Amino acid sequence: MEPYRFTYQKEMYKSSCEPCTKGVFVTLVRSTTVNRSINMRRAIREAVREGKPLDSFTRLDDFQRWCYYMQSRPRAGAKFAELTTAAKLLQWGDKLKNELPCFIFAVKEFGLVPRTDRDGNPVLDPEGNPFLYRRRKQSNIVHLSGMFMSDFDHLPFPPQELYELTRRPGYPWKTRLAHLTSSGEGLRLVSECIPEAGNIADQQYLQAKELGMLQVKGTTGKFVTDNSCINADKLSFCPRLDDILFADEDKLFNY
């Protein structure tokens, strides 16, 4: 197997967390499906924000099938039907994002655990043995990667400007990957941990402080720094190749 340093999931809710080699990473960021989903989500957000016609989106078979499914749900269907077309499209855009493959940059390996069904019963393989998979959960972490991920979303300025701050003299962290988020309005930074700086939560706090992002509010009125990234099992949705601002291909994949 090629060397790897972090893990990935094909699907956020179902897939096992497997080694993400350089080959896997390159295949995913170049994927037609990934590019289409991100492009579609951004186009929807732009059209809604600028008041453009939405017909080109509402005529799509994928969107119409999803609307049919949403409206057929016993409890939530009626409430969904009352939403505006713009609100439905934005929800669909979020669905496209949530279906993207995702990376777990802080974890090199998760332990194997039995898969269970909705009732908590073990799922069996064709031979009648428990089906084991690597579940993305804090308690299943076996080996950390030595990297941490920070998320700065809905920035009130171009995300590239924030990345440039990481290149100034004296900046203490070594960046291994920097890319735009699926909205196009945020920046994800994957950095090498500094052992003396503390745990992941400490590193993120100090990094946000160094970059002047602790009290910055974004276009949604909320703080741009995502504090949920303090969890090592925090996922990061796959970017398009064109959204990668920097990648240290050696250190990103070699532990």
Report strand %.
15-25%
* CA-CA gap between termini: 14 Å
Q: Give the helix/strand class.
A: alpha+beta
DSSP strand tally: 12
Q: What's the helix count?
A: 9
Helix content: 25-40%
Mean pLDDT: 95
Please trace the helix and strand order, writing H or E for each element: EEHHHHHHEEEEEEHEEHEEH
Tell me the Rg in angstroms.
Answer: 20 Å
**Spatial order of strands in the largest sheet:** 2-1-3-11
Question: What ranges have pLDDT less than 50 throughout 5 or more consecutive residues?
Answer: none
The biggest beta sheet is recorded as: 4 strands, antiparallel
Care to describe what's here?
α2 (32-50) runs antiparallel to α6 (85-98). With 255 residues, the protein is of the alpha+beta class. The longest helix has 19 residues, at 32-50. It starts with a strand and ends with a helix. Strands 2-1-3-11 form a 4-stranded antiparallel sheet. Helices cover 33% and strands 20% of the residues. The protein is globular and about 55 Å long. The chain has 9 helices and 12 strands.
Task: Give a quick summary of the entry.
The chain is of the alpha+beta class. The protein has nine helices and twelve strands.
